[in-house]
Amino acid sequence: MSALRWLASLLATAALAAASTESCSETWISFGESSFLLSSGNASWFDAFTECHRLGGKLASIQSQRENDFLHGMLTVCGVDKAWIGLTDAFINTVFKWADKEDLTFLNFGPGEPSGSGDHASEDCVEMRQDLEYQWNDEYCMVKRRFLCRKSTE
Ligand SMILES: *[C@@H]1O[C@H](CO)[C@@H](O)[C@H](O)[C@H]1NC(C)=O
Fold first, then answer.
1. Does residue 41 line the site of ligand 1, with CB under 6 A?
2. What is the 73 CA–ligand 1 centroid distance (Å)?
3. 135 C-alpha vs ligand 1 centroid, how far in Å?
4. DSSP 3-state assignment of 7?
5. 25 lines ligand 1 (CB under 6 A)
6. 5 in Cβ contact with 13 (< 8 Å)
7. Residue 42: CB within 6 Å of ligand 1?
8. Which of the four pLDDT bands, split at 50, 70 and 90, describes residue 19?
9. In the structure, what pLDDT confidence band is assigned to residue 122 with cuts at 50, 70 and 90?
10. Is 12 helix (H, G, I), strand (E, B) or coil?
11. What domain count does the chain have?
12. Averaged over 81-87, what is the pLDDT?
């Protein structure tokens, strides 16, 4: 390995270590014009919605592949395999909406998802899942998960 590559990999490792200590402890981490927070505890989707408000944000929308990649990295570093995001069709079945009222311009469901039809009609809330490479899955809203909040960076 060249000295330059070695230095680059050392810096990347250091950045990851810094991210792991900071982003896993319910701290707002800024990315672009927003900040994201990973909860330390588990909650149902509805309790997560309320908790994000209490923390000064909203249950997170994801508006681009870059944001999805960033959150994928955060969940990986923190060893979290499933996390609620702010997408639901609990209000009108099969019409997914962001809890923070952002327009739905980026969709990232995993293969075969959302499955919320037929036997799974009550899977109305959306999570990121490690086994889908942090693409999205619809899940029963009452299941308890860690969750991602979002706010604008002032
Ligand atoms: C959250 O739930 C997961 C999966 O059931 C569990 O392993 C973890 O210990 C829980 N975390 C907290 C903080 O309760």
1. yes
2. 19
3. 21
4. helix
5. no
6. no
7. yes
8. low
9. confident
10. helix
11. 1
12. 98
